[in-house]
Write a structure and sequence with these properties.
The protein is of the alpha+beta class. The protein folds into 2 domains: about 1-115, Signal transduction histidine kinase, dimerisation/phosphotransfer (DHp) domain (Helix Hairpins, Orthogonal Bundle), CATH 1.10.287; about 120-300, Heat Shock Protein 90 (2-Layer Sandwich), CATH 3.30.565.10. The protein is about 50% helix and about 15% strand. The chain contains 7 helices and 9 strands, in the order H-H-E-H-H-E-E-H-E-E-H-E-E-E-E-H. The chain has helices spanning about 5-70, 80-110, 125-135, 135-140, 165-180, 240-250, 295-300, and strands spanning about 120-125, 145, 160, 185-195, 200-205, 255, 265-270, 280-285, 290. A 5-stranded mixed beta sheet has the order 2-4-5-7-6, covered by helices on one side. Helix 1 runs antiparallel to helix 2 (about 80-110). The longest helix has about 70 residues, at about 5-70. The chain is elongated. The termini are far apart. The relative contact order is 0.11. Mean pLDDT is about 80; it is low at about 225-235 and about 290-300.
Length: about 300
């Protein structure tokens, strides 16, 4: 074996030192990434644990109320006014439970990859009216005024080729958010337009708004800006994450503007029309699909 000169020995030692230094750096980086992943897993498990605990109350509470109120209706000598009050309360609790379960099932389908696009020509204005109508009891409780675009005279329906079920879910969650976080006697302004093959929808409320520093987390699943037993708003931190996931699945985008505290919040959704080779014989008014020929659709 040939002997190395001093220069060659130094060069070889330097080479091995650099290799060891790089290996230690690589180990440090891998360790750092593993620690980061571990923190995220722990945070995720904590969030899911809190979500399950919270959802237990969100589901059990309306169920308990429904059972208790319906039990009272068994009384045969109950005055009509009280019957109406109880029936109204049962409807409100049942609606809340149904809305939450719809979101949970939608989130589960998205998580499992089972959620697919079901495209039809959709009457956008009917979906907006139906979504608002479903929350009318909550709107009335807070004395809110709701403004929606009205078609004038012989204007044609606002038809758009998209997934009506997903669009309905998007609208319901945005309107629910606008109602829940609005101020008493406040306003909700919903606008919808179709420009250059894109459906643009904005939902504006007159609530306290959102801290700009926290806007980036409101779309995270299971995350709420308030937490704990004393939080002032209902919900489970799932609605906006479903909105964002649905919009992205439809190749669209969503933005939120709440720069001035106390001036409300504006959610803006923009989705492209689905391009298909089909003539879109499926026509949806309220999220349910029907089949007509072109002349029947125009006459609808």
């Amino acid at each position: 074996m040939a002997r190395l000169s001093d220069e060659e020995l130094i060069a070889e030692l330097k080479k091995r030192f650099d290799a060891t230094k790089q290996a230690l750096y690589d180990v440090k980086m891998v360790t750092s990434k593993l620690e980061e992943v571990n923190k995220k897993l722990q945070s995720s498990e904590q969030i899911k644990s809190n979500f399950i605990s919270h959802m237990k109350n969100e589901i059990n509470n309306p169920l308990t109320s429904i059972l208790g109120l319906s039990e009272q209706l068994k009384s045969s000598d109950m005055p009509p006014e009280l019957i109406q009050t109880i029936a109204t309360s049962i409807h409100a609790e049942a609606f809340s439970l149904d809305f939450q379960l719809r979101n949970i099932f939608a989130a589960a389908e998205m998580e499992s990859g089972e959620s697919e696009m079901q495209v039809s020509r959709t009457d956008v204005m009917t979906l907006i009216r139906d979504a608002i109508d479903s929350f009318k009891h909550l709107i009335a409780d807070k004395n809110l005024k709701v403004k929606i675009p009205e078609l004038k005279g012989d204007a044609e329906p606002l038809l758009f080729k998209t997934d009506p079920e997903k669009l309905s879910l998007i609208l319901s969650n945005l309107i629910s958010n606008a109602v829940e976080f609005n101020s008493d006697h406040g306003k909700i302004d919903v606008k919808a337009t179709i420009v250059d093959g894109r459906l643009n929808i904005t939902v504006r409320d007159t609530g306290p708004g959102i801290d700009p520093d926290k806007i980036n987390v409101i779309f995270d699943r299971f995350v709420q800006l308030e937490s704990g037993a004393r939080k002032s708003h209902k919900g489970h931190g799932l609605g906006l994450s479903i909105v964002q996931a649905s919009v992205e699945m439809m190749q669209g985008n969503i933005t939120v503007d709440s720069v001035a505290k106390g001036k409300g919040t504006i959610f803006s959704v923009s989705i492209p029309e689905v391009e298909t080779d089909t003539e879109a014989d499926a026509f949806s008014v309220d999220g349910n699909e029907f089949f007509f020929d072109d002349e029947e659709v125009k006459a609808f």
